């Protein structure tokens, strides 16, 4: 199928003609009997939703956690006490029990 080539200038002229026709219809439609203008019904103003103040992200602190095989935290140490956390994990892992490991964990700080 061949496509019809349309010039942008022709489309613009058609659009301008349609707009002029609408404006003429509005002006003629506003004047009612006796030359009085009809008032258009105004739409009620839409209330804007108030914007909620964005909350700051919660502050977090880093700890060392000693975890068992099922990923349950057994103990928690400050970040500066990594050696103590590793010693606790080694102590819990001895004796044929399930292995324990040390991992970083973040927790929120209440201000």
Strand content: 15-25%
Question: What is the averaged pLDDT score?
Answer: 85
Helix content: 25-40%
The number of helical elements comes to: 2
List the helices and strands in order: HEEHE
How far is the first residue's CA from the last residue's CA? 72 Å
Multimeric state: single chain
Number of beta strands: 3
The radius of gyration is 38 Å
Give an overview of the whole structure.
With 111 residues, the chain is α+β, with helices and mostly antiparallel strands. It has a domain of 49 residues. 32% of the residues lie in helices and 20% in strands. The chain is built from two helices and three strands, in the order H-E-E-H-E. Strands 2-1-3 form a three-stranded antiparallel beta sheet. A hairpin with a 5-residue loop joins strand 1 and strand 2. The model has no long low-confidence stretch (mean pLDDT 85).
What would the keywords be for this entry?
alpha+beta, 111 residues, three-stranded antiparallel sheet
Summarize the structure.
With about 110 residues, this protein is an alpha+beta fold.
What layout of secondary structure does this protein have?
Layout: H1 8-30, E1 60-67, E2 73-78, H2 82-93, E3 101-108
Antiparallel strand pairs: 1-2, 1-3
């Amino acid at each position: 199928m061949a496509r019809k080539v349309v010039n942008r200038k022709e489309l613009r002229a058609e659009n301008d003609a349609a707009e002029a026709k609408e404006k003429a219809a509005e002006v003629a439609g506003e004047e009612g009997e006796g030359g009085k203008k009809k008032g258009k019904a105004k739409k009620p103003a839409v209330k804007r939703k108030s914007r909620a103040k964005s909350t700051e992200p919660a502050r977090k602190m880093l700890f060392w956690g000693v975890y068992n095989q099922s990923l349950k935290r057994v103990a928690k140490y400050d970040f500066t006490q990594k050696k103590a956390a590793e010693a606790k994990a080694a102590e819990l892992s001895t004796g044929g029990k399930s292995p324990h490991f040390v991992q970083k964990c973040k927790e929120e700080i209440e201000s």
